[in-house]
Specification:
Elements: H1 2-19, H2 24-27, H3 33-45, H4 49-65, H5 67-74, H6 80-89, H7 96-109
Helix pairs in contact: 1-3, 1-4, 3-4, 4-5, 4-6, 5-7
């Protein structure tokens, strides 16, 4: 589990390096930052494009939206399946205060979630 957490943190870093400073014009190009990052993640992790994109979304969610939960994951206290479910089930939360409260609660309780 710890290696999966490290991998997703690195995936998020590659994604951020390609996508964080994109403006609207560059984001509409055929080959944008996300596509470049996806190609690198795909090659480095031996994944197809869709799987690489999925890993990127999970890694970015942990890095930017759920840092406390990411720390629990990095300690190996939560499985990859639980982390995947958490990130996808919280991606529609847009209120920063609500997201911070959710992250705190998840970090405290996720180790007891079991496999799912």
């Amino acid at each position: 589990m710890k290696s999966a957490a490290r991998r997703l943190a690195l995936v998020a870093e590659v994604t951020a390096r390609h996508c964080d400073d994109e403006d609207d014009a560059s984001a509409r190009q055929l080959i944008d930052g996300w596509a470049l990052a996806k190609a690198q993640v795909s090659a480095a992790c031996n994944l197809g494009p869709q799987a690489a994109s999925t890993q990127m979304r999970i890694g970015v969610a942990l890095r930017e939206r759920l840092p406390q939960t990411a720390a629990v994951f990095a300690r190996g206290a939560v499985s990859v399946k639980v982390i995947t479910a958490i990130t996808w089930r919280t991606h529609l939360v847009t209120d920063p205060d609500a997201l911070a409260r959710i992250d705190t609660e998840l970090a405290e309780n996720a180790p007891q979630f079991g496999a799912l």
